[in-house]
TrEMBL record:
InterPro entries: EF-hand-dom_pair (IPR011992), EF_Hand_1_Ca_BS (IPR018247), EF_hand_dom (IPR002048), LPCAT1-like (IPR045252), Plipid/glycerol_acylTrfase (IPR002123). It is found in: Membrane. This is PCAT1 acyltransferase. It comes from Upupa epops (Eurasian hoopoe). GO terms for molecular function: 1-acylglycerophosphocholine O-acyltransferase activity; calcium ion binding; lysophosphatidic acid acyltransferase activity. The gene is Lpcat1. Keywords: Acyltransferase, Calcium, Lipid biosynthesis, Lipid metabolism, Membrane, Metal-binding, Phospholipid biosynthesis, Phospholipid metabolism, Transferase, Transmembrane, Transmembrane helix. Residues 495-526 are annotated as: Disordered. SUPFAM superfamilies: EF-hand (SSF47473), Glycerol-3-phosphate (1)-acyltransferase (SSF69593). Coiled coil: none annotated. Pathway: Lipid metabolism; phospholipid metabolism; Phospholipid metabolism. Belongs to the 1-acyl-sn-glycerol-3-phosphate acyltransferase family. One of its GO terms (cellular component) is membrane.
Length: 526
């Protein structure tokens, strides 16, 4: 399985309708340091880092009593009124204290471009790309409300500062919380009395190489929004906090060890939705994303937060950064299918694959899936057309679909693959195992010789699923010992961030029932 020329349809360069090569995975961030950079970090760790950390913590503690006093006794009716004179003073003091906190972190000046719209002009600010908790800088500059998990208000010190900016809280324990959140945002946006709401529509952090699919929650109210783009033009990117890469504490340490950190905040013109966009929040979100991508000069990609979850699934086969399976999952959803609900159909696809010949052309693949030939289906076909001969092994499709449907159930996928590849006596060869594992990991090449020899203790030249299952039970980390050395290597020298919830400062609140199909960009109707 590989990204063939015809199968590289995961991104569109802003300003162009043509499909192009995909960007690097937006959920991966790798750092490499030269010997000189390592020496500088070591020196700063012993000198400037502890001073900065202490000063930044002191500024946060200093802000707490002001935020606490200003938040006491504030009911909803009072919050909708203009700020009293003393609250205006507190507002100015808190902004000054927060600015000193960022100054302590090396953000000596913040470059602001454009004009921030008045709340009457745009009640919602959509910010992208979302790549770090340092994206809180525009929040502390504007004190706009944000959408936060309800649990955040219980965090000591930080929770008090959050409550001061009057956020919209999303409760995990309330199944109806997302719908209520959208209704509250709509109410605030249409009232004209509340502060602006700042929303990060990507829903998770990326490496800023592209803009992933925007969640529609910010666009459901159908009111004008002001797009805000963030840039961190630093020679060494210690800011980015993604799912695969340095963890939160490591990012903090490395950033505070840089003498200067640059950030640019650009307020784009207010985007007023057409009538069609008001009725279709997915279209509205896509068109705003396109405008922001043009301003940033980056691609837009159909990758979503769900793809991020696939990449970080807790299974024995952890997907490498350059896996094709993220694109495959995107193409599956583009066909109108949801991987989360396809698990019951896997057996059907597997049985049909075993009954038909192994290699099929595009027309036969279309009949196998019961989908008409389309550009999306052609892109999916091209992913498996390794030699660009116009034929694919349909068994590879079944394996890839199994990984996407149940990414954390590695052995179930391998068991299904054994059923597809095994001979009459229930065994597979080393070549078969290579086909299985390279498809399950979404890579074009893989070396399984050492793994196969370890499983084939009797040197029969063939193994059964029971052999493999017994080996995996004895050596649950077999992939790290035998596969990742070649596939993932030690390029970054960094551990994967083990997060069980979306990273970033803005949680996703889009209703589960919201339409999740990606729609093509359409010209705005005025």
């Amino acid at each position: 399985m590989k990204l063939s020329g015809r199968g590289r349809g995961c991104c569109v360069v802003a300003g162009s309708r043509d499909r192009g090569p995909p960007p690097r995975s937006p959920f991966v961030h790798q750092l490499r340091f030269s010997p000189l950079q390592k020496a500088k970090i070591a020196f700063m760790t012993l000198t400037l880092f502890p001073i900065r950390l202490f000063f930044a913590a002191f500024m946060m503690l200093l802000a707490w009593p002001f935020a606490f006093i200003a938040s006491m006794g504030s009911d909803e009716q009072e919050l909708e009124k203009p700020l009293s004179w003393w609250r205006r003073i507190v507002d100015v003091l808190l902004k000054a204290i927060m600015r000193m906190m960022w100054l302590a972190g090396g953000f000596h000046w913040i470059n602001v471009k454009g004009r921030r719209a008045l709340p009457a002009e745009a009640a919602i600010l959509t910010v992208a790309p979302h790549s770090s908790y340092f994206d809180a800088i525009p929040v502390t500059m504007t004190f706009a409300s944000i959408v936060m998990k309800a649990e955040s208000k219980d965090i000591p010190v930080w929770g008090t500062l959050i409550k001061y900016i009057r956020p919209v809280f999303v409760s995990r324990s309330d199944q109806d919380s997302r719908r209520k959140t959208v209704e509250e945002i709509k109410r605030r946006a249409q009232s004209g009395k509340w502060p602006q709401i700042m929303i990060f529509p990507e829903g998770t952090c990326t490496n800023r190489s592209c803009l992933i699919t925007f969640k529609p929650g910010a666009f459901i109210p159908g009111v004008p929004v002001q797009p805000v783009v963030l840039r961190y033009p630093n020679k060494l990117d210690t800011i980015t906090w993604t799912w695969q890469g340095p963890g939160a504490l490591e990012i903090l340490w490395l950033t505070l060890c840089q003498f200067h950190n640059s950030v640019e905040i650009e307020f784009l013109p207010v985007y007023i939705p057409s009538e069609e966009e008001r009725k279709n929040p997915v279209l509205y979100a896509n068109n705003v994303r396109h405008v922001m991508a043009q301003a940033l000069g980056v691609s837009v990609t159909d990758y979503t937060f769900e793809d991020c979850q696939l990449a970080l699934a807790e299974g024995q086969l952890r997907l490498p950064p350059d896996t094709c399976l993220l694109e495959f999952a995107k193409l599956v959803r583009s066909l109108g299918l949801k991987p989360e609900t396809l698990e019951d159909d896997l057996d059907k696809y597997a049985v049909r694959a075993m009954k038909m010949k192994e290699e099929v052309d595009l027309k036969e693949f279309s009949a196998y899936l019961e989908f008409p030939v389309s550009p999306i289906l052609e892109s999916m076909f091209a992913l498996f057309d390794e030699n660009e001969e116009g034929i694919i092994d349909v068994r590879e499709f079944v394996i890839a679909l199994s990984v996407v449907c149940k990414p954390s159930k590695t052995l179930e996928t391998i068991q299904l693959a054994f059923q597809l590849y095994q001979s009459e006596n229930g065994t597979i060869t080393e070549e078969d195992l290579a086909h299985i594992l390279k498809t399950a990991m979404g890579v074009s090449q893989i070396n399984v010789t050492q793994l196969f020899r370890a499983v084939d203790e009797e040197e029969k030249g063939a193994i059964t699923y029971n052999d493999f299952s017994s080996f995996a039970e004895l050596y649950p980390h077999f992939a790290e010992d035998y596969l990742y050395v070649d596939q993932m290597g030690t390029e970054s020298g960094l551990e994967t961030s083990s997060l069980s919830a979306p990273n970033g400062i803005c949680t996703d609140f889009s209703p589960e029932s919201a339409e999740d199909k990606n729609k093509p960009l359409q010209k705005k109707l005025n």
